[in-house]
Write a structure and sequence with these properties.
With about 625 residues, the protein is an alpha+beta fold. About 20% of the residues lie in helices and about 20% in strands. A hairpin with a 5-residue loop joins strand 3 and strand 4.
Length: about 625
């Protein structure tokens, strides 16, 4: 498992006590109402270091949404509302502990897993130490005390302004310093543009620790956001996308990599956008995607500022999802981060990613829902032997609800109306499942918000979890280990209601009835409407599949038919599962460097994609009937 080392609870407590006892520089004498202390801290730090208060507020919002995150680090070792980075206190992890072949196509040799070495010497990961020197506050205090963290960020921002020799007191005069802050020492115009866009619109929210913070909108700004994209990139205007191509090269005995040329959408419709995390630093990830013997994806996003690099044209097929059917019909986005660390993803990255996904969805006619915008953890194994090895990123701490809000596609429902379908939608901040294994097996993970909802065999929190025979072939119940999603659903996913009992709701899941608490006062799901599939009358159960491949007769001479192999699960009679999309039977034969030989095989078989468990799966259209939920 990936490992990390964080300040212990004792250290954090001691640090906060120390900061209060010695009245660290800039400590506020009168912070005002309890829920206004953070607002006061921004005003005081801005005045102390000569930074426009609105600029300081906007920078912090784009980094962290003003949250403290319980003093735990982000995926790029950033602490506190100002995202001051300290890699010594929170070194990144290494890689996923599973080793599924990213290409997921038996017609090609399997790509073995590879360790991802992590860069730890970048100045981008050490801004907290510099802020400590400038603000004359101990590093441990900057990590543990949000007020002092804000002071440290203000001091660093003011230092960048001095180094640039910039003059002026208005927000526009601070664009260069903001760009340097977002790039953690180098300039990031994408970050600065997002900060100035936030200044223009304003923001207001209650933070994760109950602080009410407000940034009034500014209508007097001269700067107009809009970083230019490299001409080869396919990004929305103003995102500042960079072209760092993945190599299409032949090597060895006719082998090649690290993606396949295609002509989508003319050759195949793009149905999916797959969200990954990198399990390595941004710099390491960029090196890996430039290795012709390795794997590929279309885009990489950097945590600190949301910077976007594109590597593979969206017409071509990248090797990333571990399922060739999905790869052939998907665009892959890698986000700098570590699924098992229990850390948080930056607002800058969420915002840039949401803009990119909204653009890509519009360009390809992809609906903005969780049947089409998949996490890597929602992609099914191809055949029974690959199920257990599939990756599970971006993990339970990726905030799907906030992400879709940013895309303008929030998960709305019908409230508490007793319909036959629910959309999973817990409150992210207060929904804190007791996961283990973020740092070591059996060790509790930090308590933090999550989009995951845990399922039980009975309407009782003490009852066992459900069983996923793909992950636990011995039929033992699932666990709360961070990577074990045997009995776990995610925000935005839709399931057919199986039963209700008091404050508990049951759904159909992997052929079982799974219960979760769903009280009206704090619901974990909202009622919704859609279509469901159920086995045709007379069938006791039907098979489910990990890919929608054609029948053998559809393959032309010279192309070996791919097996239509059911997974180890069955869908029993009487159960219902949410219909996501109609999946045509297709197989993209691409096993040679010469792309003129590539062929899309299409069959007469038709499939429905359903939300069968944590992952989507496929059923044969001829085996089921479709009904309103």
């Amino acid at each position: 498992m990936p490992r990390s080392h964080r300040p212990t609870t004792a250290l954090l407590t001691a640090a906060v006590a120390f900061s209060l006892a010695v009245a660290a520089p800039g400590a506020a004498a009168d912070p005002g109402p309890a829920d206004a202390q953070r607002q006061h801290a921004f005003a005081a730090a801005a005045a102390e270091f000569g930074v426009p208060e609105s600029v300081l507020l906007a920078v912090s919002f784009v980094e962290s949404r003003w949250d403290f995150n319980a003093g735990t680090p982000s995926v790029s070792a950033g602490f506190g509302p100002m995202h001051l980075t300290d890699v010594a206190a929170a070194p990144p992890g290494t890689e996923h502990d599973q080793g599924a072949d990213p290409r997921g196509d038996e017609a090609r040799p399997e790509l073995p897993p590879r360790a991802n070495p992590v860069d730890v010497d970048s100045p981008a990961l050490r801004t907290l130490g510099r802020a400590a020197e400038i603000s004359h506050v101990d590093s441990a205090v900057l990590r543990a005390d949000p007020t002092q963290n804000i002071r440290g960020g203000a001091a660093l921002l003011a230092q960048y302004q001095r180094e640039l020799g910039a003059a002026g007191s208005g927000p526009d005069d601070w664009y260069g310093a903001v760009a340097r802050y977002g790039g953690t020492g180098t300039e990031s115009t994408a970050f600065a543009d997002e900060v100035f866009a936030t200044l223009r619109t304003g923001a207001e929210r209650i933070t994760d620790d109950g602080q009410h913070v407000r940034l009034p909108a500014r209508t007097d700004l001269r700067h107009r956001p809009g970083a230019p994209n490299d001409p080869q990139t396919e990004c929305p205007a103003g995102l500042g996308c960079q072209w760092i191509p993945a190599p299409y090269e032949e090597f060895g005995a006719g082998d090649y990599g690290n993606h396949d040329l295609a002509n989508r959408p003319d050759s195949q419709k793009v149905d999916y956008i797959v969200i990954h995390d990198t399990e390595g630093s941004y710099d390491t990830t960029i090196r890996l995607v430039q290795d012709p013997t390795y794997v590929s994806w279309q885009y990489t996003l950097r945590s600190a500022d949301g910077h976007v690099a594109q590597h593979v044209q969206r017409k071509d097929v990248a090797w990333h999802a571990g399922n060739w059917y999905v790869n052939a019909k998907a665009i892959g986005l890698e986000h700098e981060g570590f699924a098992a660390q229990g850390t948080w993803y930056t607002e800058a990255m969420y915002r840039q990613s949401a803009k990119l996904v909204r653009y890509l969805a519009h360009q390809n006619g992809i609906p903005l829902d969780r049947a089409h915008i998949l996490g890597h953890d929602n992609v099914p194994g191809t055949v029974p032997s690959t199920v257990a090895g599939m990756h599970w990123d971006p993990g339970p701490y990726w905030d799907w609800a906030h992400y879709f809000d940013l895309m303008g596609a929030p998960f709305r429902g019908l409230g508490n109306a007793p319909t036959g379908m629910v959309t999973i939608r817990p409150d992210f901040a207060t929904n804190q499942p007791a996961f283990t294994g973020c740092t070591a097996a059996g060790v509790p993970c930090p308590a933090r918000g999550s989009t995951s909802v845990i399922l039980h065999t009975q309407p009782d929190a003490n009852s066992p979890l459900l069983t996923d025979i793909g992950l636990h072939p011995d039929s033992t119940p699932g666990t709360m280990h961070i990577s074990d999603h045997s009995s776990r659903v995610e925000t935005g996913q839709q399931f057919a209601v199986a039963d209700r009992a008091g404050d508990w709701t049951a759904i159909w899941y992997l052929g079982q009835k799974g219960w979760f608490p769903n009280p009206r006062s704090n619901p974990a799901a909202v009622s919704s409407f859609g279509f469901v599939v159920t086995p045709k009358p007379g069938l006791e159960s039907i098979p489910v599949y990990g890919r929608a491949y054609p029948e053998a007769a559809a393959y032309p001479p010279g192309i070996n038919p791919q097996a239509v192999t059911p997974l180890q699960y069955r869908l029993p009679a009487g159960q219902r599962y949410s219909l996501g999309l109609v999946a045509p039977s297709e197989y993209y034969w691409a096993v040679t460097f010469d792309a003129t030989n590539h062929t899309v095989v299409r069959g007469n078989l038709r499939y429905y994609q359903i939300q069968f468990g944590h992952r989507v799966m496929f059923v044969n259209v001829d085996d089921v009937v479709v009904r309103p939920s």
